[in-house]
Amino acid sequence: MENxxxxxxxxxxxxxxxxxxxxxxxxxxxxxxxxxVQIIAFPECCLSGYWNLRDLDRNQMLKLAExxxxxxxxxxxxxxxxxxxxxxxxxxxxxGDDDQLxxxxxxxxxxxxxxxxxKLHAFFNQHIKCGSSYTVFDTPHGCRVGVLICxxxxxxxxARINAIMGAEILIAxxxxxxxxxxxxxxxxxxxxxxxxxxxxxxxxxxxxxxGPKGREWLMRWLPSRAHDNGIFLIFSNGIGIDGNEIRTxxxxxxxxxxxxxxxxxxxGDDMVIADxxxxxxxxxxxxxxxxxxxxxxxxxxxxxxxxEKGIREVRLGMK
Length: 319
Known about the structure:
Elements: E1 4-10, H1 18-33, E2 39-41, H2 58-64, H3 72-84, E3 87-95, E4 101-108, E5 114-118, E6 128-129, E7 136-138, E8 144-147, H4 156-164, E9 169-174, H5 192-196, H6 202-210, H7 215-218, H8 222-229, E10 232-237, E11 239-242, E12 245-248, E13 252-254, E14 260-263, E15 270-276, H9 285-291, H10 311-316
Parallel strand pairs: 1-2, 2-3, 4-6, 8-9, 9-10
Antiparallel strand pairs: 1-15, 3-4, 4-5, 7-8, 10-13, 11-12, 13-14
């Protein structure tokens, strides 16, 4: 891996308006290019919308979905990538060549490459199918990148497999925080009054975003994905209104020791930039621990326990 400058963006998407969201992406890409950023990550489903789509039927979803690479959003990202010489990642609803709908993340690269990760643990709409493969690839910037979307990162095996496949940087786009969660000690709804009054009292809403509904919850698990696998991690998250919930932002960039290089807790659109020092990686704890693996012991990880359930049932209590 070579040293590289990366950026993580949080923004409040415009529901059902991909063109408006693409314009927000363009503005951030332009800002990033002036600061010599080489990779920029935007949130999950930031182009099509996320929680506002949860109750749509298939025909309604099809009006927002598009194929990756040949679709208008992918083509716009590819043009931006080439024009500004930046690798760009952004999320949308994909219409696959199998006629299935996916929660997908498009990576557009300056050399014309277009990669796509389909969320492995998708749940927000019953018509969205889960992906079935990992996405790890080389970029024109001299680094190897993996992508895991939101809930994918909560399953620890996924991050480890990305590292085993050679990922040096993990892009982790989310729409999280402020969730009405089935776990009694995880997240919880953000007080909408605080959000509506954010311009008059930014301190109050920032405390909410940095508390147990947002950053404090992230700090219980997110740094371990970077630390235990010796990878840099770019966490990009939504901020603000997302359907009937409020996302908590806290976009950040972590090093292979799980340390935060740069972060934001702004109650609004924002971008953080960090220089990734490749020399940190080879001797990081996670990389050395991985060298001590004993794969012959891990067969139980691939065997069903009988406790497995569908992701919608686990996350939402719905089959």
